[in-house]
Amino acid sequence: MQQKWLSKLMVVDYEITYRSGKSNQAADALSRKGEEDELLLRDQMGSLSALSVVICNWVKDLQTSWVQDSNIQQPIAELIQNPASHPHFLWQHQMLYYKTKLVVGNSPQLKATLIKEHHATPTGGHSGGERTYRRIKQGFYWKGLKSDVRDTAVAAADTMLRDRDAILKLLKEHLV
């Protein structure tokens, strides 16, 4: 659940501020510790810090997909020479965008990875084909996106049904 909110919060400009003690009117009983207790705990245990960093391993794969796709190489070259040559397309910081969405080249492996990341992970949440499509569509563009997601979702559903039927068969055999 936290991962779904992370993607929504990433586009919002906000600041998290710590308010100690009575200055925090919304604090609950768990967050109301005395400063003496906190200092005592720190002396006994040391301190613990955490840092979350988003690492995008797929960026190089995305750029490689453009190099391997002859239909994308030409528009990139034209956009570098004349940024207005292709309406709705933008070449900025070595990235190709279509209407603010990253363009994915003809790379079945990268497309499958993106679909899997937006569907079959805790972040994706197994939310179904239509939600997966809408989630991918928010940040990426490629021709045939909807049909690729649909085909993948249909294949996944078929596999789940076969697995379910096999499990039910085993249960019936062993419980009867």
SSE topology sketch:
Elements: H1 2-9, H2 35-45, H3 59-67, H4 70-81, E1 89-92, E2 95-98, E3 101-103, H5 108-119, H6 129-137, E4 140-141, H7 145-175
Parallel strand pairs: 3-4
Antiparallel strand pairs: 1-2, 2-3
Helix pairs in contact: 5-6, 6-7
| CATH second-level architecture of the largest domain | Orthogonal Bundle
Provide the number of structural domains.
Answer: 2
Q: What is the CATH T-level topology of the largest domain?
A: Endonuclease III, domain 1
Share of residues in strands: 5-15%
Low-confidence stretches: none
Mean pLDDT, all residues? 78
For this structure, what is the CATH class of the largest domain? Mainly Alpha
Tally of contiguous helical segments: 7
Protein name: Integrase zinc-binding domain-containing protein
Q: Overview of this structure, please?
A:
There is one protein chain. With 176 residues, the chain is α+β, with helices and mostly antiparallel strands. The chain has 2 domains: 2-45, no CATH class; 59-175, Endonuclease III, domain 1 (Orthogonal Bundle). Helices cover 52% and strands 7% of the residues. It has 7 helices and 4 strands. It has helices spanning 2-9, 35-45, 59-67, 70-81, 108-119, 129-137, 145-175, and strands spanning 89-92, 95-98, 101-103, 140-141. It has a 4-stranded mixed sheet with strand order 1-2-3-4. Helix 6 runs antiparallel to helix 7 (145-175). The longest helix has 31 residues, at 145-175. The chain starts with a helix and ends with a helix.
